[in-house]
Amino acid sequence: MTSDPSDPSDPDRPPRVSQLPRASQVPRASQVPRASQVPRASQAPSQPPRLSHSAAPDARELVRSTRGDAPSAATREMAIEQVLLRYRRRRTLQSAAWVTLGTTIALAAVLALWLRNSSPPETQLAREQPPAPSQSSAASPATASAMNAPAVAASAAARVPELEPCTPAMRAEGKNPLIDDFEDNDGRLAPLERRAGFWSASNDATGSQRPAPGGPLTMTRIPGGRGASQFALHTSGGKFTKWGALLAADFSARRCYDASAYAGLRFWARGRGSFFVVAKMTQIAPEEYGGSCTHDCYDSHRANVALSKDWREYSVTWAELKQKGFGQVVPFDPRSLLSLEFTVAPEQTPFDFWVDDIRFSER
Amino acid sequence: MTAHFDFVWRSLRRLGLSADDADDGAQEVFVDASRKLSLIAPQSEKRFLFATALRVASTRRRGLKRRREEPHPWLGEEEPLAERERSDPGPERLAELARARRDLNEILAAMKLEQRAVFVLYELEELTVPEIADLLDLPAGTVSSRLRVAREEFDLSLRRLRAREQFPGVKS
CB-based contact (8 Å) between A58 and chain B? Predict the structure, then answer.
């Protein structure tokens, strides 16, 4: 039997054209809400009946066969016990890790504080680079370059070691350059800018020197004076064969003296022959003399001064001070001074010279 | 934890793991959950546990395949009976249930894991479609679609099974 297309009661009968919705009534594709825009609840279709209720007995039996399926009580308890055990063990390990981390951080902080407090601020100062030689030049009546300064044996540029920190250091402010004018005749440096050394004589004991080493060094009255100056350093002696003789004064009682505020040294002198003006650094002097040198010591930075029989003012810049080259190579650093010396080597003996009005040359 | 443990264990079994693997897998799921306790939102523990169980089941099944073992070695093993059935174990009934379990497991084993998960949750755990959608973090439409496909496969597999039983020599 076939259905009659004209029968209006037939549900399978196709709709007439007049019964179809107009184009304006049909929502466009763009107007249809996207799946993501539709709330999830509204998407949920009606639920199909479950197999356990609606399926054939055979299928129903299969689905129902698993009902109440569960692990054995022993299995469940053992598994839960294991999980809890692992959970507690992990918590314990985490706590221990936090405690360890906290302790480590605290110890590190204490160590850092201790290191910081045990290092004075001069440490950083000593690590800085010394001033460039070009900045140290000063107007001078007779420069060391005109004094036949000896060349350092080898170029130290390629093998300059890192300077050890020089601590503690006393620092010159750069306002009172006078080191000593000897007019007080007390054998000690002018007490300016924390300078506090005493003059002394010393030699290698292979010749004679006046004043003799060991006793307090007294100043010598200048015959006829030198302008307003009445007293000066004076020493003389015979031949020496080892390292010679010297007059010296510590800047600050075996402590580093920072004279970087100044450009060099100036002094008046007269005599015969020549001597070396020496600015000794702590890194050059051995420990028993207040320095830090452990091997190949005494190769101090020096400049040779050719003397004349009349008083002349001499000026030496820091850059003009060079090592002889027999000892440890140390770049000159005016922040690490230990003492000032006027030295004669064996080849410069016999000797007789005066020194007066010693001061730092200003920048 | 006890209630959730049973749910996880059942899910792992129905997702294709043997009883021994389900024991280990359930433990793995809860160890993982205990590590991520702070990440699990309140009221969503079940969702997290089932998602983890799904991952664990998938990983363990892949492991079985890599070792070239029978993917579902538990198909032939003696199925543990439900506590309810154990209390009334008539010998004939026991045999019927064991056979039904074996058949169900064989049919489930043929399904893809994603359809199988939906089928198990709907037909065996008797969760609603919105609950499953929430549990699997899927749109309800997708859940319904997967359920429809899974039920079709279930019907087909069951018919093949019965045909094989009636005509043992015929390949279906």
Answer: yes
